[in-house]
């Protein structure tokens, strides 16, 4: 049975992200990605669902060049991922990490501002001397994710897990990315905080018209938050469809090694003191 796709052509929705025949093979012959192909339209919250080791993280990391592919192509709009286009693509893509990836001994402000390294001179990053426009943007991003000015000079290590992930989202928003990659963003959080974080991620993406590619392993959260679910098993796509069609049979096919069921077509090093000024 042919795998369903939500991509439309011929006057319909054009792909924002496009994956064509992706292959990533390890030296032992195991394929983390095995001929993965699908398109993601602009503004979609697409959840990549599957067990640990199914290829979810490898797929996400292919978008910003953190994974070297053995075959296939990744496109952002009309730009193909390649050595010559990598820097430009990374300016348009941000990542939210499972383990937050904050510098724990650095301040919240310094961690958020580290999201601007693609646009700021290296010496400014090293000294923590960011332009006032970026500092104002960092303050606005922190406020949007629910943190106050009082948090700016706190060390990241002093925050709760949920607060640390909010800092991670604020960092991702700093350069107004077109695409947000969220790699198991709630794996380390309790269920209530997980829903808060995914709600925040979905809402800020919608406000900015950003596309979200989010890997999860929790089926209940995928059904609740995804516009679309792409299910992966052993490096292959085995489900692709709206979240409403990810039923018990599809879940069993994804997690219990039963036949696949497809839906019908359808860092700063110098601490500084920061304060927010009215925008």
Instruction: Calculate Rg over CA atoms.
Output: 19 Å
What share of the residues does DSSP label as strand, in percent?
15-25%
Number of helices: 9
List low-pLDDT spans.
Answer: 1-11, 260-274
Shape: globular
Q: What gap, in angstroms, lies between the N and C termini?
A: 55 Å
Secondary-structure element string: EEEHEEHEHHHHEHEHEEH
State the helical fraction: 25-40%
Which structural class best describes the helix and strand composition?
alpha/beta
What profile does the largest beta sheet have? 6 strands, mixed
Overall pLDDT level: 86
Please count the beta strands (DSSP E, at least 2 residues each): 10
Strand order of the largest sheet: 6-7-8-3-9-10
Task: Give an account of the 3D structure.
With 279 residues, this protein is an alpha/beta fold. Helix content is 30%, strand content 23%. The protein has nine helices and ten strands. The chain has helices at 56-63, 86-90, 108-113, 122-127, 132-144, 161-173, 191-208, 219-225, 248-255; strands at residues 15-25, 31-41, 45-49, 71-76, 79-80, 93-96, 179-183, 211-216, 228-233, 236-242. Strands 6-7-8-3-9-10 form a six-stranded mixed sheet, sandwiched between helices. It has a four-stranded antiparallel sheet with strand order 2-1-4-5, covered by helices on one side. Strand 4 (71-76) and strand 5 form a beta hairpin. Helix 5 (132-144) packs across helix 6 (161-173) and helix 6 (161-173) runs parallel beside helix 7 (191-208). The protein is globular. The termini are far apart. Residues 1-11 and 260-274 have low confidence and may be disordered.
């Amino acid at each position: 049975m042919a795998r369903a796709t939500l991509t439309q052509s011929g006057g319909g929705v054009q792909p924002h992200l496009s994956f064509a025949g992706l292959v990533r093979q390890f030296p032992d012959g195991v394929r983390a990605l095995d001929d993965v192909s699908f398109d993601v339209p602009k503004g979609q919250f697409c959840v990549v669902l599957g067990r640990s080791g199914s290829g979810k993280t490898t797929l996400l990391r292919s978008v910003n060049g953190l994974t070297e592919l053995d075959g296939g192509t990744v496109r952002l709009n009309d730009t193909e991922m390649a050595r010559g286009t990598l820097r430009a693509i990374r300016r348009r893509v941000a990542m939210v990490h499972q383990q937050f990836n904050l510098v724990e001994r650095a301040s919240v402000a310094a961690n958020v501002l580290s999201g601007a390294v693609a646009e700021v001179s290296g010496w400014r990053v090293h000294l923590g001397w960011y332009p006032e426009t970026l500092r104002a943007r960092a303050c606005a991003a922190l406020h949007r994710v629910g943190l106050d000015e009082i948090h700016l000079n706190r060390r990241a290590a002093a925050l709760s897990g949920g607060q640390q992930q909010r800092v991670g989202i604020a960092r991702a928003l700093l350069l107004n990315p077109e695409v947000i990659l969220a790699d198991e963003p709630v794996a380390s959080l309790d269920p209530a905080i997980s829903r808060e974080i995914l709600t925040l991620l979905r809402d800020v993406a919608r406000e900015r018209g950003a596309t979200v590619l989010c890997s999860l392993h929790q089926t209940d959260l995928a059904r609740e938050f995804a516009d679309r679910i792409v299910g992966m098993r052993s490096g292959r796509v085995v489900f692709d469809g709206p979240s409403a069609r990810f039923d018990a049979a599809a879940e069993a096919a994804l997690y219990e090694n039963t036949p696949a069921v497809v839906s019908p077509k359808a860092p700063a090093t110098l601490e500084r003191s920061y304060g927010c000024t009215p925008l």
